[in-house]
Amino acid sequence: MGTTSFQVPNFMKAVLSNISPEVKHAIGNISDFKYIKFKNVSALKRQSLITEMNAITNKGFTDVTRKNEIDKTRIISVIELGAIVTDAIIFSSTENETTAYYLQGNFDPKKIKSFADEDTFNSFSNNLIQAYQTNLNPSFNPEN
User: What is the pLDDT of residues 57-112, one digit of tens each?
Assistant: First the structure.
């Protein structure tokens, strides 16, 4: 099983906020950000991850979107303070890949809901991972 996981340190939030308008809008309001991706998980492990995510989001979170299907599960669940989202879990699981984000900060609920769109979610994920990996070991030599 292949796994990628990271928590974004503050200096990386500034770097990542420049990769796209979507990421800049989201990253600009984040005080805590965690990401994990599992690849090539067995059906049993995938079901276990979905069950764990359901248990987490059923305690104090409000669902924005919940789609539990055999081949695709997508959960967007939030904690709200008035009209502001303060915590968000964005979870997506297919037969090929399971991804989870935890975001803490002050967010526009409409922006969080936009991640329910699969293209928006995939674009955000791909841009974020590409930028994070590119900037993980920045060079001190501008020519490299």
Answer: 999 999 998 998 888 999 999 999 888 889 999 999 999 999 998 888 888 788 78
Six-digit token string for 15: 């770097």
Q: How far apart are CA 20 and CA 81, in angstroms?
A: 27
Integer distance in angstroms from the first to the last C-alpha of the chain? 33
Per-residue pLDDT tens over the stretch 134-143 = 655 444 444 4
Nearest 5°: the CA angle 84, 90, 94 is: 160
Contacts of 36 (CB under 8 A, 6+ apart): 3, 4, 5, 99, 100
Q: Which one, of 87, 84, 100, lies nearest residue 61 by Cα?
A: 87
